[in-house]
């Protein structure tokens, strides 16, 4: 085994802004969700935000990429398959991943077009709202998967956002099939309430007969299972996942595995930005899982890592801050 976790997901350059609720209302932006937008709106919003609020941070992003970076920073061996364009954003993104210790083959899959961008707007209550122009990442497909690396991994990690594009959804399904044929376990994250609300059929198609690990929050769990309480959602999710990891914000997390339910307390902090909290939780948990941690141990590490990320702007941490948690 060469890699602890092989991830697939969107490649997006994050541009993060501190904004007001009034700005979201004035621009008809749905708070708390990830919304796909076209390039012209992305350019207009970016200019408006820079002029009004100023850019706080520009980093590599993408849900699964954030998770894979966290695993790598903690000491895990990782590979990330995604798609960027042969432009400044693509070069920035590739270098960002490599600096974090993540292996890629991005130099082989850069194409003409525009690298995806995500505008992250954080309000004073620390809630993140995202408007995303996928760009070339919407063309991420099976030919971009690098199966040799996949079959040399312990886990395949798939982000739910891939369901928004037919091409990338098919790539996720193909990766999952190859993983199953080669005894590679699969972890999947719902990623966002919008994914299980508007793309539920596609999500179910990726999950197929079930996954080894499922990450979600309470809202996503209940939307997907069409239940109105966590207990019923858990009962329904047991049919599609061997291990269920449900994040609950300031109430910590619940992990269900082999008929046993484990609760993890959240570390109480003053949050300024919840962007990337779920990705960070998943990354630290997956690191623990691949290092032989118990659910309780992995959950505790993940909760502490998530607490660290919400006290800073952006979806990634300096490696030293993560290593200090071990």
Summarize this structure as a short list of keywords or feature phrases:
eight-stranded mixed β-sheet; 14 helices; UDP-N-acetylmuramoyl-L-alanine:D-glutamate ligase; alpha/beta
Layout of helices and strands, plus pairs?
Blueprint: E1 3-8, E2 12-18, H1 21-26, E3 34-36, H2 39-52, E4 57-61, H3 63-74, E5 78-81, H4 88-99, H5 106-109, E6 116-122, E7 128-133, H6 147-150, E8 153-159, H7 166-181, E9 185-189, H8 193-198, H9 200-207, E10 211-217, H10 218-225, H11 230-237, E11 241-247, E12 253-257, E13 260-264, H12 277-290, H13 295-309, H14 319-323
Give an account of the 3D structure.
- Helix 7 (166-181) packs parallel to helix 9 and helix 10 crosses helix 11 (230-237).
- 40% of the residues lie in helices and 23% in strands.
- It is built from 14 helices and 13 strands.
- A hairpin with a 5-residue loop joins strand 6 and strand 7 (128-133).
- The chain starts with a strand and ends with a helix.
- By secondary structure, it is of the alpha/beta class.
- It has a single domain (3-323), classed as UDP-N-acetylmuramoyl-L-alanine:D-glutamate ligase (3-Layer(aba) Sandwich), CATH 3.40.1190.20.
- It has an eight-stranded mixed β-sheet with strand order 5-1-8-9-10-11-12-13, with helices on both faces. A five-stranded mixed β-sheet has the order 3-7-6-2-4.
